[in-house]
Amino acid sequence: MKTVLFLLAGIFACARVLAQQPETQPYITENQFEEESARTDAIPQEDGQWQDQEAYRRRPLQLNKASAGELASLGMLTPWQITALLRYRDTLGAFISLYELQAIPGFDQSTIERLLPFVQVGYDLDPHINWRTRLTQGSTSMLLRYTRTMEAARGYQAADSVAPHYLGSPDGLQLRYRYNHPGYASYGLVMQKDAGEQWFQGAEKQGFDFYSAHAAIKNDKALAALLLGDYTVNMGQGLVNWQAQAFGKSAGVMNVERQGDLLRPYASAGEYYFYRGAAITLRAGHWRCTAFASSRKLDGNAVTDTLGINYITSLVASGYHRSENELNQRQQVRQYTMGGNIGLHYRTWQWGLNVLYNHLSQPLQKRAYPYNRFEFAGQALGNASVDYSGNWRNLHFFGEVAASDNRRFSMIQGLLAAVAPAIDLALVYRHYDRAYQSLYANAFGESFRPANESGVYSALTWRLFKPLTLNAYFDAFRFPWLKYRVNAPSAGNDLQGSLLYALSKKSSVYMGYHHKTHDQNLAVAAQGLTPVWPAHTFGWRWQSIVACSPAFTWKMRVQTSTYRHGSEHAAGWMLYEEGSRQWKRFTLTGRITLFNTDNSDARIYINETSMLYSYDIAQLYGKGYTWYVQARYKTKHFTCWCRLRQAHYSDADHIGSGWDEIKGPNKTALQVQVEYRM
């Protein structure tokens, strides 16, 4: 009852200030990260697009010269919105004012508010680009981040004469330097030590556990891009290779097409999804030609069989090297990669031919489980694909057809349609063969790997009237072969619907419902067999953001989760309130979250406000509460963050499992970050 009264008090305290201007849709971004974490059970580590956005914030993108690729790199516009903007500019000439964005079909107030900090108009604002301006007019940043869990986990504790399992301290440290002139030049260095890893001692005498560096030049006459060091490759719709951040199904129901630069400098701290070598793109007229080569060592579980043959049972993507076991997995296999793309860009259409070849120094042979029967095995893997995208009248088409060298195919075909000024539709069909093989593919679907899946996705965005928007999707899918924890061919469907009411520029209310059905093994076997039975997961979410004053924002969310699978049943709920107060240079943010779920089957993922370039997705299950306080102080060149977070579980005497187990009901984390920018 106290919690309910506290929630109502926050609502009524701010109810008098709801007559301001329309606002953005932060719930879409939050929902994308929450759904992605639930899908992959991992926190995103690739923040290249976020870095580019911050660079555009300091040197906005020139709308009168921006290409479709540059607009897509912002990560804020759908393909149809990009097409509408370019068509408006070609028809009516250069933009005179940003107010003209209101006249572009498909641009509502939320889209415009989200876009404004990163764009500008006027040719006089964009100086002539030469080598001097390319290397001096960008932004330079240096970032230091420190993290630590205050309670000592089991892996850091010594037992009698036995040394701790983790060889290093529980301190996490990241250093990053980057010069970034979006669209023209970038170079930088990243150094990282994860918690539990050694630093300038033992196995890490060279200092940090992970180093990454890159240098890139773009848009210099015929040279579209030249990258040295670490970079990502993002082809077509992700059937062959996609290493940058990409989302699946979410509240952004129209964000179904993979968009982004084919080559992108890598300046993040993740240790797996990138290449190391050189890449180049040349252009002539409507043609683009890209080639790249890479050689790098990967972590893996190495095994020697009875005949003395060495092979790898799995590649390890975590990047952790905290213990002797994890150090034994380090750099066990070298990966050689070559590939390329030939692209034709003509008017509003583009086509691409993609090829990729990977060779491992040791063969990969996954463990002999039935669901691994069609997985890649061996040392060499080749892929090729054809992709396209383009517009015809009020329709936008996109797709890709790919093949692996075992002659198995995957394909995805999509359509976006503006059927009315206030209504957008999406339709996506995908068919991924059960034996299609790839190493770095990440395509749209129920699973992030484009294999063993077929499905049809349909979505609707309907701007019912100016402040109210309806978003909904339905996805029906099936898996023709076995999956992990699914011992038979299976099927399912996914439904989500939401309403967003923009009360004002900084105030909005969101309500959504999500229901997913998918087959899964029953926990109890019957007569030696494990039956497969539909599992249902569904829940409601209500969220509001209220600008109580120009300097104070209040945010609230209530969310439920229910899980049913045979005789199993679990349910839970979560409620949080967050306040943010801003002074001239100082911002203080705090949140308290209450949660109560029966078990992990009803767990809830929530995005937490955090420091720049830091993704914090909380996975809540059990019974308890969390709170955090974050302070930010900003000067002309320096920005400092300090964040303290604690989780308390009232129904547990320990948190976590294995070597990460913490005795007691509390887990407290400290984060400190300093950024220097000029």
Structure explained in plain terms:
It comes from Chitinophaga costaii. There is one protein chain. This protein has a 24-stranded antiparallel barrel. The protein has a two-stranded parallel sheet with strand order 1-2. A two-stranded antiparallel ribbon has the order 26-27. It has about 675 residues and is mainly β. It is globular. The model is unreliable at about 1-25 (pLDDT under 50). It starts with a helix and ends with a strand. It has helices at about 1-15, 25-40, 50-60, 70-75, 80-90, 110-115, 130-135, 325-330; strands at about 60, 120, 140-150, 170-180, 185-195, 210-220, 225-235, 265, 275-285, 285-305, 310-315, 335-345, 350-365, 380-390, 395-405, 410-420, 425-430, 455-465, 470-480, 490-505, 505-520, 530-550, 550-565, 570-580, 585-595, 605, 615-620, 625-635, 640-650, 655, 660-665, 665-675. The chain has a domain at about 1-25 and about 470-635.
Main features:
8 helices; 678 residues; 24-stranded antiparallel beta barrel; mainly beta
Describe the structure concisely.
With 678 residues, the chain is mainly β. 11% of the residues lie in helices and 49% in strands.
Task: Summarize the SSE layout with pairings.
Elements: H1 2-14, H2 26-40, H3 48-58, E1 61-62, H4 68-73, H5 79-92, H6 109-115, E2 119-120, H7 131-136, E3 139-149, E4 171-181, E5 185-193, E6 210-220, E7 223-233, E8 263-265, E9 275-284, E10 287-304, E11 310-316, H8 324-328, E12 333-346, E13 349-364, E14 378-392, E15 395-404, E16 408-420, E17 423-432, E18 453-465, E19 468-479, E20 490-504, E21 507-521, E22 532-549, E23 552-565, E24 568-582, E25 586-597, E26 604-607, E27 617-620, E28 623-634, E29 638-649, E30 654-655, E31 662-663, E32 666-677
Parallel strand pairs: 1-2
Antiparallel strand pairs: 3-4, 3-32, 4-5, 5-6, 6-7, 7-8, 7-9, 9-10, 10-11, 10-12, 12-13, 13-14, 14-15, 15-16, 16-17, 17-18, 18-19, 19-20, 20-21, 21-22, 22-23, 23-24, 24-25, 25-28, 26-27, 28-29, 29-32, 30-31
Protein name: Helix-hairpin-helix motif-containing protein
Organism: Chitinophaga costaii
Pfam families: HHH_3
